[in-house]
Amino acid sequence: MLRPILIHPDPRLKKQCEAVADLSDELRALASDMLETMYDAPGIGLAAPQIGVLQRLIVLDCVKDGDPDPVVMFNPEILQSSDDTNVYEEGCLSIPDQFAEVTRPADVRVGWIDENGNPQEKDFDGLWATCVQHEIDHLNGKLFIDYLGPMKRQMMTRKSAKLKRELARG
Questions:
Q1: Of all residues in the chain, what percent carry a pLDDT higher than 90?
Q2: For position 64, what pLDDT does the model report?
Q3: What's the pLDDT tens digit per position in 13-27?
Q4: Does pLDDT of 65 surpass 90?
Q5: Of the residues 89, 115, 135, 166, which is catalytic?
Q6: Which CATH architecture has domain 11-169?
Q7: Is the CB of residue 117 less than 8 Å from the CB of residue 23?
Q8: Which is nearest to 74 in space by CA: 127, 129, 115, 131?
Q9: Rounded to 5°, angle at Cα 166 from 162 and 170
Q10: Beta-bridge mates of residue 72
Q11: CB of 122 within 8 A of CB of 80?
């Protein structure tokens, strides 16, 4: 089921999310809805707060061409980050049609619980590393524009607020 994606500024996008205490069928269904919503948008990552659910759950799939490789992460956390950095032009489904270069660690090791309740750990690099860090930031109430200077952040927030008003009018 497609879920509506919150558009910045929305106070829920700035909130710290609660850890998932135990996996339920409801949460697995939510993860499935999130993947469907992400692919439909289209995007490569989506965090639960972006659809108004303040739980530590993210989905991602950075495969551009070829078979999808969806990853569902409950309670993801970055266990290790490289000193090397990468710069990617990032965008966000909650800040439509706006992009900016963000510098992040080039490689990260992430730990999480999968849909079956099993602990997982994996090293990510390239676009996958950027995406997983971007989505985990959402769980901590941080947006990619928070890495930008105040002028650029303010400009992007104003554009997003204008779009949000236009969408609300229908």
A1: 96
A2: 84
A3: 999 999 999 999 999
A4: no
A5: 135
A6: Alpha-Beta Complex (3.90)
A7: yes
A8: 115
A9: 165
A10: 59
A11: no
Structure tokens at 95: 């800040």
| Structural domain spans, the chain | 11-169
What is the C-alpha to C-alpha distance for residues 165 and 160, in angstroms, rounded to an integer?
A: 9
Predicted structure pTM score: 0.96
Average pLDDT over residues 122-132: 98
Which amino acid would we find at residue 87? V
What amino acid occupies position 88? Y
C-alpha span between 126 and 11 (Å, rounded): 30
Please identify which residue in the block is written with the tokens 């229908």.
170
- Please answer whether residues 65 and 128 qualify as being in contact, where contact means their C-beta atoms are separated by less than 8 angstroms: no
Between CA 65 and CA 147 the distance in angstroms is 29
Residue 24 token pair? 């339920």
Sign of the CA dihedral running 69, 35, 153, 139: negative
Residues constituting the chain = 170
- Is 135 labeled as catalytic in the residue annotation? yes
Q: What is the pLDDT of residue 10?
A: 97
72 residue type, one letter: V
Question: How many other CB atoms are there within 10 angstroms of residue 158's CB atom?
Answer: 11
